[in-house]
Amino acid sequence: MLKWIQLALLAGLSLGVSNIALSKGEATPLISVEGYTITDYDIERVIVSSPLADQYPTLNEKDQAAMRGAILMRLVNMQLLYLEAINQEMDRDPAFIADREAFIKGITYKLYMDRLRASIKIPDKVMSALLSRLKGNSGALDASIAQYKSQQYKLVRSLALKKIREQLHLSVHEERITPAITPKTILAEADNYIVSFSDLGVELEGKDDFHAATIEERLYQKLEIDLVNMVSGDISDGLKNTIDAFSRERLPAMLLMKKENEWAPDRVAARAYFEQHRELGFIPEQRMISQIVLDSREKAEATRKRILAGESFFRMAKLHSIDPYGRKNAGQMGWLTKGKAMPAIEQVLENMKEEEISEIAETEKGFHLILLQEIKPSIQHEYEEVYDRVRQAITDEYLPPFVRSLQHKYKIEFADPVAEIPVERP
């Protein structure tokens, strides 16, 4: 997967982020990129929506500051990529326009269905009967209410769609879904609306690829979304911020796809790069570990003796580890790449065998006991097995200078609280 995809996810630009400590009205401006302001609220959204949200509060002040600084610069770079995509008129690219229209259709459809769901009310008689029958059992009452609303939603939705089909005079030609189907075959018609087989995005390389049920399912999915949009009208004005957020994700992604194809135009170029960097095919040894962290050597020694005497390592981690993440997960830390741990831990792991308990390792975090659960030996892969990694490595090499050129091209202004944060320029 491309790094920019991970970046887009980390940047928290998707909709629906909740439980944010700051409100948008309290946001403090941090950096302006060609007039577009990035605030501490934006950083908060990233943290809350990222996979690291649970671990962030456990970090010390220095690590939290480093994480926030890295996120800030990533947000800056995303905006730079967006500006460059606009500069290259990628917002006029037919592929982007099609993606944007599909996104708007999807949001419009969702809002319509949300309104239907919100319109469902439980009649007083039904509610009274439920309260009487399930008195004192709040869990069962909630489940019954949810089940009733779900059943009513299915009915209301079915009736609403039937009404739309009748209103727009929809005709569906299922009988035309045969192995003889062509891209121009018309499968459905309504007022000022036609759906041909080519509109479904289904590609048939031969008769063996023909599956009538799949085509029919795709047809009705498209009809449902399109017809709901037709009766909903244009609501894009009310979705301006939502659509803008989509564009700010999609356009940088498209720009980086374009640049990646310039940096590695074909497999020949990618293979040549791999032959010069064969380490890209090397997968280091992996170790599955669990750990207990204690605040003194005496406690660590006592805990080690108890484990060697037969007590559960995982139970001891859950009860006594001072590492919040480890305590929450009964000490289980997952896979660790050889050479990536702190030196003291690497030293004790070096000669350990599977299912062995380590000697005490002292670090700035405390006194560690390590359980080495499993070892995956190192592997050397060949080019075809690591093609995606090679493409990523090429991107990693060429992307930083490209971003630095954008930092030089577009105006970046820092607010006083972060004026000391450096921006790399060529």
TrEMBL record:
Reaction(s) catalysed by this chain's protein: [protein]-peptidylproline (omega=180) = [protein]-peptidylproline (omega=0)
Domain PpiC span(s) in chain numbering: 284-374
Coiled coil residues, start to end: none
UniProt cross-references to InterPro entries, sorted A to Z: PPIase_dom_sf, PPIase_PpiC, PrsA_foldase, Trigger_fact/SurA_dom_sf
Broad EC category: isomerase
Keywords: Isomerase, Rotamase, Signal
EC annotation from Swiss-Prot or TrEMBL: 5.2.1.8
Keyword Isomerase attributed: yes
Signal peptide: 1-23
A molecular function (GO) term: peptidyl-prolyl cis-trans isomerase activity
Gene3D superfamilies: 3.10.50.40
Family (UniProt): Belongs to the PpiC/parvulin rotamase family.
This protein's name: peptidylprolyl isomerase
